[in-house]
Amino acid sequence: MNVLRRLLVAVLGLGSAAAFLAAFFGLAGGWGWREGWAYLGIVAFGHSLSTLWVWRRQPEVLRRRGAIGKGTKPWDVVWLAGFAVIVLGMLLVAAAEIGRSGPAFAEPWRVLGMVLYAFFLVVLTWCMVENPFFEKTVRIQKDREHRVIASGPYRIVRHPGYAALIPGFLLGPPLLLRSNEAFLPAALGVLWVVVRTAVEDRTLRSELEGYEAYARRVRYRLVPGLW
Q1: Is 172:134 a contact under the CB 8 Å cutoff?
Q2: Of 96, 191, 207, 221, which cross-links 27 as Cys (Cβ 3.0–4.6 Å)?
Q3: In angstroms, what CA-CA distances link 174 with 69, 118, 137?
Q4: Which of the four pLDDT bands, split at 50, 70 and 90, describes residue 3?
Q5: What total of structural domains would you count in the chain?
Q6: Can you tell me the distance from the alpha carbon of 168 to that of 146, in angstroms, rounded to the nearest whole number?
Q7: Is residue 222 packed enough to be buried (19+ CB in 10 Å), middle (13-18) or exposed (0-12)?
Q8: Would you say residue 223 lies in a domain?
Q9: 138 Rama sector, left if φ>0, alpha if ψ -120 to 50, beta otherwise
Q10: Torsion on CA atoms 67, 72, 77, 79, rounded to nearest 10
C-alpha cells in the first residue's frame, strides 16, 4: 500500500507540474518565453543547492519538511493551501500580462529580482541549518523536545524565514518575470505571511517554554526596529 500511495503521489505531482507548465507558458504566448524559463531555472538551481547544503548538515529537517507533522495547527493547513493559491496566482498573472502586453519594465530590474531571490535562499538555508525544528507547519514538536532557538538569524528577528520569504519569494518573482500586475497577488501574499507570523508568534508565546523570555530579548518579529 505504501508503494501504491507513493506512486499515486508521484503521478499526481507530475500531472500538476505538467498542468502548471502548460498554463504558465500558454498564457505567456508559447514555450519561447525566455524570462519564464530563466525564472524556473533559477528556482530549480537555487533550491537544489540549498537542499544539498542542508542535507549535509541537517538531513532530518528536510525529511520532516516533506510531511505534515502530528499536532499541526488546523488553521495552518488552511494557511498553507491559501499561500499555494496566492503564489500560483502570482505566476499565472505574470504570464498572462506578458502574453497580453509584453514585459512591463526594463531588463535590468531582473537583476534586483535575482538578488532578492538569492537573499531568500541564503537566509532560508541558514535557518534550516541553525534550527532543527524548522518544519513547514506550525506545531509544538513535543515528540522532539521542542526548544527555543536563539542563535544565528534568530538573534536578529524571531521569524527570519518569513523575513526573507517576503522580499525574495514574493517580491522577487514579479521582477524576474518583468510583470507589474504580479505585484497585486504578491502584496496579498505579504499580508498572508504577516498574518501567519502574528498567529504563530502568539502560539509559541503561549505553548513553547522559554519563548516568552526569548521574545523579550529579541523584540522584533520580521523587521528590526519596526515590527
Answers
A1: no
A2: 96
A3: 32, 15, 26
A4: low
A5: 1
A6: 28
A7: buried
A8: no
A9: beta
A10: -120
Q: Residue 201: which H helix or E strand, with range? A: helix 183-207
Residues 201 and 136 sit within 8 Å (Cβ to Cβ) = no
Domain-located, residue 8:
no
CATH number, domain containing residue 188:
1.20.120.1630
For helices 2-28 and 74-101, what crossing angle results, to 10°?
Answer: 30
Grid cell listed for 168 = 525574495
- Report, as an integer, the average pLDDT of 27-37: 94
Average pLDDT for 89-95: 97
Spatial distance between the Cα atoms of 215 and 205, rounded to a whole number of angstroms: 8
Q: Which helix (H) or strand (E) holds 18?
A: helix 2-28
Q: Is the pTM of this model over 0.85?
A: yes
In a domain, 41, yes or no: yes
Joined together, the cell numbers standing for residue 175 give 521582477
**Residue 222 φ then ψ, to 5°:** -120, -45
- The DSSP line for 104-117 is SS-TTHHHHHHHHH
Length of the chain: 227
Domain that holds residue 154: 33-217
For the chain, state the CA radius of gyration: 19
